Amino acid sequence: MQFMRALLKAVLAAIQPVGALTATGLTTTGVNLSAYDGSGVFTLHSAAGGGTDPTMDVKLQHCDTTDGSYVDITGATFAQVVDAAVAESIAVDMSQVKAFVKAAWTIAGTSPTFTCGVTFHGIAKGS
To answer: d(Cα 67, Cα 4) in Å, to the nearest integer?
Structure first.
């Protein structure tokens, strides 16, 4: 029952809104997750890659300020996406995460395209 109450308090945030990605990149603006603690869950949702031999590697990065230098979050790298649809979640200890989070991706192949997004589910501090 306690788990269900906590689940009802969970908040969803888009780290990378769903859209078509065709080149290596980084989320434009970091998402402020400083109000969350405990375990946060980041989920990558991706349709199968298009093009010839498409690959996409996605990882999460964090920073103390929205416009500072972002570094990788330890253990927050998703499995490589190729030509099959993927939904993968990673649980992260939010006490180890700096205030702002972005997704970074590396895309390779000939004319690669991926329709994907990254979401966050977490419980606000004091909930």
So the answer is: 36
- Residue 63: both structure tokens together: 């920073």
> Percent of the chain at pLDDT above 70?
92
Fold of domain 2-124: Jelly Rolls (2.60.120)
H-helix or E-strand containing 18?
A: strand 11-21
Give the whole-angstrom CA distance, residue 97 versus residue 83: 31
Report pLDDT digits (tens) over 57-115: 999 999 999 999 999 999 999 999 998 999 999 999 999 999 999 999 999 999 999 99
* Per-residue confidence (pLDDT) for residue 56, from 0 to 100: 97
Residue 25, H or E segment: strand 25-26
What are residue 10's phi and psi, to 5 degrees? -65, 145
Length of the chain equals: 127
> What's 49's DSSP letter?
P
Predicted local confidence at residue 12, as pLDDT: 80
- Nearest of 38, 43, 42 to residue 2 by alpha carbon: 38
